[in-house]
Amino acid sequence: MLNLKSVFVLAILSVSASAMADDTQINTKDVEATLTANLAESMELMQEQLSAELDTILAIDEQKKNEEATAKVLLAD
After folding, report:
1. What CA–CA distance (Å, rounded) separates 53 from 49?
2. 3-state class of 77 per DSSP?
3. What is the pTM of this model?
4. Three-state SS sequence of 5-66
5. pLDDT of res. 57
6. C-alpha dihedral over 14, 19, 20, 25, to 10 degrees?
7. What is the pLDDT of residues 8-24, one digit of tens each?
8. How many CB atoms lie within 10 A of CB 33?
9. Res. 29: pLDDT tops 70
10. Of 71, 73, 53, 50, whose CA–CA distance to 61 is shortest?
């Protein structure tokens, strides 16, 4: 049988548990927002780096093609 003290303790524990669950949810939203912002920033940085690397690779490839064409012209002479 439950007495009045037990009912009171159970009520306080359930209120505390629901309050803690609400705090956890708020903290989770803050963490999620922070992670989303960091992810977006990191993805933008990666895109910039990838674009720079691709530009470099394309420039080197074009330079090699020009050197090969020049070498063929010199051999033909």
Report:
1. 6
2. coil
3. 0.51
4. HHHHHHHHHHHHHHHHHHHHHHHHHHHHHHHHHHHHHHHHHHHHHHHHHHHHHHHHHHHHHH
5. 96
6. 130
7. 777 777 777 665 555 55
8. 10
9. yes
10. 53
